[in-house]
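debug: dumping io for the single-chain case to check the tokenizer round-trip. Nothing else runs in this session.
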Amino acid sequence: MRQTETAEPPVFDAGACLVAVGRDRDKAAFAQLFSHYAPRLKAYMRKLGADDTAAEEVAQEALLAVWRKAHLYDPAKASAGTWIFAVARNMRIDMIRREKRPEIDAEDPALVPDAEPRADDHVGARQREALVREAIRQLPPEQAEVVRLSFYEEKPHAEIAEVLQLPLGTVKSRLRLAFRKVRTALGDDVE
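debug: decoded output
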């Protein structure tokens, strides 16, 4: 039987990275932001209707803008992810406007800027995030490990099964059990 490490995975703190980039022009922090957000921004642009090339271009331009404007980020107003996605979304809107494509509907909800999140929503999100982290810490090691591999390292279930030398069904069962325990710990309704 393979012994699992119980050490907690390093936690990626996008807010701290963004502050470090804005304050110190920290290239290592920016590299972390880039590797974490580039694929997510590209996927987000694809969901908004961009083709692969445009999605890649917007993601890269948005992260370049994040590098340039990081000093403007205020953690009291929004999470780092919210801020970065807003930069990307606004960049896409600007690119569409420059192209002056006639098929754009000015009333399209994707083109309407998001309202600033309320302070209590921001605090609530931070509190829930802390509760989720604590709930994950309380999981049995074998469940915590599949959660770490799936969500922190973004590995597909089949790869997790290969890495842990487990059947795919076991990996999926452990994830289901972990989700149920986390949801119960958060007081969410469990089916």
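debug: round-trip ok. The radius of gyration is 19 Å.
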